[in-house]
Write a structure and sequence with these properties.
- The complex is a heterodimer.
- Chain A is built from twelve helices and ten strands.
- Chain A is of the alpha/beta class.
- Chain A has a domain of about 220 residues: Rossmann fold (3-Layer(aba) Sandwich).
- In chain A, strands 5-4-1-2-10-9-3-8-7-6 form a ten-stranded mixed β-sheet, with helices on both faces.
- In chain A, strand 9 and strand 10 form a beta hairpin.
- The radius of gyration of chain A is 19 Å and the shape is globular.
- Chain A starts with 18 loop residues before the first helix and ends in a 5-residue tail after the last helix.
- Chain B is mainly alpha-helical.
- Chain B has a single domain, classed as Orthogonal Bundle (MetI-like fold), CATH 1.10.3720.
- In chain B, strands 1-2 form a two-stranded antiparallel ribbon.
- In chain B, helix 2 crosses helix 13 and helix 6 packs across helix 7.
- The chains are: A alpha/beta, B mainly alpha.
- At the A-B interface, helix 4, helix 5 and helix 8 of A face helix 8 and helix 9 of B.
- The structure holds adenosine-5'-diphosphate and magnesium ion.
- The site of adenosine-5'-diphosphate has 16 residues of chain A, from helix 3.
Chain lengths: ~325, ~325
C-alpha cells in the first residue's frame, strides 16, 4: 500500500480555466495535439454547462451530510502523517481533496472506508461519522463499510481475470443472488465501457488500455452498488482523452453517488468538484524534521479557486507555492 | 556503436578510438559464456545418449509390448519377466500418497505464510522451511522405517496392518519431505502478487479469506502449479525413501499397506548389485531409467503448458 508520488502531468488537460489558475499551476498539463485539443475543448465546454446547471440546483437544496470528520489525525507507526482534519462531506456532491504530494490526501481518503486498517502501523484518531455512525466504533465491521464505500485507485488495478469476472467479483463476494449478466452489463454501461468491451467479456482485463482499465475499476466499484465512491488520483496514469472521459463519467455518477476525489491536478478539481479541500504540509513543531499534513481550507470550489481565505491556498492555486 | 564516431568531429586523438583492447576482452567473455552454455547442452545430450543406447539394445532383446504391458517384473531371475507395470504402479501409488499430503498442506501453509502471518512470523518460518528442504533423503527414509511404520502398525484401525515395508509409510514421509518445497515456492508466488490487487479486492468488500482464495491464489496460480509439479517430479524421482521403507518387492497392487518397488527403487537396488556390463540385467536398468526420464519429461511439458495457460500477467 505504499503510495508512490506520481507526476500528474500526463493526466492534465489545459482548458479554459480562469487565467490565474492555468498559468499558475505547478503541474501544468501537456497540451494534447492540435486536433484533439479542439475536440477536447468542445466537449469540455458542453460538460461545463451541465455542471453549472447541477451546481445551481445544488445550492438551493440543503444536501444531507454523508461524512463528518471531527479532528481526524492519522499516525503511521506512531508519527503523525496528517492532523486536525475537520470537514463535512455532502451527499451527491463531488468533493475534491487537493494539495502537494505527501500532505496526506490519500491517508485521509483511506480513513473513509477503513482501508487504513490494512496498513500495518496505521492508526486513525479523532472521529469519522458516516451518516452519524462512528466508522471506527467497536461494532462496525470494516468489510461492510467497504461494501458501502467503494474506492478507485491511483493506478488502475484490475484483477488478472476476465472483464466479466472483474465486474462480478464484488457482487459475488457480497452474496449477490440476482441476474449477474444484467448487473455486469448495467455496471459496464454506467462506467461508459460497455460499447468497447461488449463483444468479448471473457477477454482478459489486462489487455485493456489504461483508460479502459480505470473505467473497468469504476464499473467494478459501482457493481456493488455503493453509497460513496472514493477516487485516489484516478486520472494520474491516464492520457488527456481518457481523463476527460472519466471526468464526464463522474459528472454522470454524482447524481446517484457521493464522490470524493483526490487529485493534485488543480484544473481537474476546478472542473469537476463542487467543494474543494486544500491540504498542505506544515513543519511539525514537536520534532525537527517531521512534517505533518493539515487541512488549510475547505469550501465551495469556486470560492477556493477565486476567492480563497487563506494565503497558503491562494499561493497554491495561483502556483506560487513554495 | 563504433560506426557513430566517423560522423562527429573527433575531439580526442584517433589512436584512442582504434584501440582494440576493449573489444578483444569482450570477445573472450562472450566466447567463454558460449562455451559454458554449450557444455551444458553437450552434457545433456551425452546423458540422454548414454541412457538411450543400452535401452535400445534392451528393446532389441525384449519386446516393448512385453515391457509396457507385462504384469510380472523379475528381470534378474533365471526365468526372467520384463513387465514394468508393477514398478510403474508402485511409483504411482507412492507419488499419489505423497501428493495427497503435500499439495493441500503445502497450499494452506503457503496461504497462511503469505496472507495471514505477521511479517516477523514469516521471516522466522521461511528459512526453517528452506532448511527442512535440505535434509538428506536418507534421513527421511529411516524416519519412515523406524518411526512412521511402527506408528502405523501399532495404531492401525481397519483390516490388515501395514507390513514392515509398505508404500503408505514411504508415501507419507515423501509427502512430508516435499511439503517445505511446495509451501515455500507457492508462497513465493503468492507473495509476489501485487499489494494493489489485495487493496482493490478489500475495497470491494472482500474478506481476508476471499482475497486469499479468489484473488491471490488465482493470480499466483502459475507459480503454484510450478511448485506442485516440481514437488511431484521430486516424488517420482525420489529413491532413498522408497528403497529403505517401501521394500524391494515388485507388486502390482493399489493397496498401500503392502510392500512395493518403484522404478527408482529398482534402479537403486539393481545398480548396487553387480550386474555384468552388457548383460540383460545391466540394460534393464537403463530401460527403466529412460522410461522414468520420459515420464518426468512429459510431466514437465504439461506443467509448462499449464503454467502458460494459467499465467495471470499483472503489470
Ligand atoms: N503506508 C504508509 N506507511 C507509512 N507512512 C505512510 C504510508 N502512506 C503514507 N505515509 C506517509 O503519510 C504521509 C502522507 O502520505 P499520503 O497520504 O500518501 O499523501 P498524498 O496522498 O497527499 O501524497 C507521507 O509523509 C507518507 O510518507
Ligand atoms: Mg496520494
Amino acid at each position: 500500500m505504499i503510495e508512490r508520488p506520481m507526476s500528474e502531468n500526463r493526466g492534465a488537460v489545459v482548458m479554459d480555466e480562469p487565467e490565474r489558475t492555468r498559468e499558475g499551476s505547478s503541474d501544468a498539463g501537456v497540451a494534447p495535439e492540435a486536433g484533439a485539443d479542439a475536440v477536447l475543448q468542445e466537449s469540455a465546454k458542453l460538460a461545463e454547462v451541465t455542471r453549472e446547471r447541477r451546481r445551481q440546483v445544488k445550492k438551493d437544496a440543503d444536501a444531507e451530510t454523508v461524512f463528518e470528520l471531527k479532528d481526524v489525525a492519522v499516525t503511521y507507526g506512531g508519527s503523525y502523517a496528517v492532523q486536525g482534519v475537520s470537514m463535512s462531506i455532502r451527499k451527491n456532491e463531488i468533493t475534491a481533496l487537493i494539495g502537494p504530494s505527501g500532505c496526506g490526501k490519500t491517508t485521509v481518503l483511506r480513513c473513509l472506508n477503513r482501508t487504513n486498517d490494512l496498513i500495518q502501523g496505521a492508526k486513525v484518531h479523532g472521529q469519522v461519522l458516516y451518516h452519524d455512525i462512528d466508522l471506527y466504533g467497536p461494532k462496525v465491521e470494516p468489510v461492510e463499510v467497504r461494501r458501502r464505500i467503494g474506492m478507485v485507485f491511483q493506478k488502475p488495478n484490475p484483477f488478472p481475470k476476465s472483464i466479466y469476472d472483474n465486474v462480478a467479483f464484488g457482487p459475488r463476494v457480497g452474496g449477490f443472488k440476482g441476474n449477474m449478466d444484467e448487473l455486469v452489463e448495467r455496471s459496464l454501461r454506467r462506467a461508459a465501457l460497455w460499447d468497447e468491451v461488449k463483444r468479448d467479456l471473457k477477454a482478459s482485463a489486462m489487455a485493456l488500455s489504461g483508460g479502459q482499465q480505470q473505467r473497468l475499476c469504476i464499473a467494478r466499484c459501482i457493481a456493488v452498488e455503493p453509497d460513496v465512491i472514493l477516487m485516489d488520483e484516478p486520472c494520474s496514469a491516464l492520457d488527456p482523452v481518457s481523463t476527460l472521459r472519466i471526468e464526464e463519467l463522474m459528472d454522470e455518477l454524482v447524481s446517484e453517488y457521493t464522490i470524493i476525489i483526490v487529485t493534485h491536478n488543480m484544473q481537474q478539481a476546478a472542473r469537476v468538484s463542487d467543494r474543494t479541500g486544500f491540504f498542505t504540509v506544515a513543519e511539525g513543531q514537536d520534532e525537527k524534521d517531521h512534517r505533518i499534513g493539515i487541512l488549510v481550507e475547505y469550501d465551495l470550489t469556486p470560492t477556493v479557486f477565486t476567492n480563497p481565505s487563506d494565503p497558503r491556498t491562494e499561493a497554491y492555486v495561483t502556483g506560487r507555492f513554495g | 556503436m563504433a560506426a557513430v564516431t566517423t560522423e562527429r568531429p573527433v575531439s580526442r586523438p584517433l589512436q584512442g578510438l582504434e584501440s582494440g583492447r576493449r573489444r578483444y576482452r569482450e570477445k573472450i567473455i562472450v566466447g567463454s559464456l558460449f562455451l559454458c552454455a554449450a557444455l551444458s547442452i553437450v552434457l545433456t545430450v551425452g546423458i540422454v545418449l548414454a541412457l538411450l543406447i543400452p535401452s535400445l539394445e534392451f528393446f532389441g532383446q525384449v519386446s516393448p509390448v512385453e515391457f509396457f504391458t507385462g504384469t510380472e517384473w523379475a528381470p534378474l531371475f533365471k526365468n526372467s519377466q520384463f513387465g514394468v507395470l508393477p514398478l510403474l504402479g508402485g511409483t504411482l501409488v507412492v507419488t499419489l500418497i505423497a501428493a495427497a499430503i503435500c499439495l493441500p498442506l503445502g497450499l494452506l501453509a503457503a496461504i497462511y505464510l503469505s496472507e495471514y502471518a505477521a511479517r516477523r512470523t514469516r521471516s522466522f518460518v521461511k528459512p526453517i522451511l528452506e532448511i527442512l528442504a535440505g535434509i538428506p533423503t536418507v534421513v527421511y527414509g529411516f524416519f519412515a522405517l523406524t518411526f512412521i511404520t511402527p506408528l502405523l502398525r501399532e495404531n492401525w484401525l481397519f483390516g490388515t496392518p501395514p507390513g514392515v515395508f509398505n508404500a503408505l509409510s514411504a508415501g507419507l514421509v515423501m509427502g512430508i519431505m516435499i511439503l517445505p518445497t511446495v509451501a515455500s515456492i507457492s508462497e513465493d508466488a503468492m507473495y509476489a502478487v501485487p499489494q494493489s490487487l489485495r487493496a482493490g479486492a478489500a475495497a470491494l468488500g472482500a474478506t481476508k479469506y476471499e482475497i486469499s482464495t479468489r484473488v491471490v491464489v488465482p493470480a499466483g496460480l502459475s507459480g503454484i502449479i510450478a511448485a506442485f509439479v516440481l514437488g511431484i517430479s521430486r516424488a517420482v524421482g525420489e529413491t532413498m525413501i522408497v528403497l529403505i521403507a517401501a521394500g524391494g518387492m515388485p507388486n502390482l497392487t493399489f493397496n498401500p499397506v503392502e510392500a512395493m518397488q518403484t522404478m527408482t527403487a529398482f534402479i537403486g537396488a539393481a545398480g548396487l548389485g553387480d550386474q555384468a556390463t552388457g548383460s540383460i540385467g545391466y540394460k534393464t536398468i537403463f530401460a527403466v531409467g529412460i522410461s522414468l526420464f520420459v515420464m518426468t519429461l512429459i510431466m514437465n511439458i504439461i506443467s509448462i503448458r499449464l503454467v502458460r495457460k494459467y499465467r495471470e500477467v499483472y503489470d
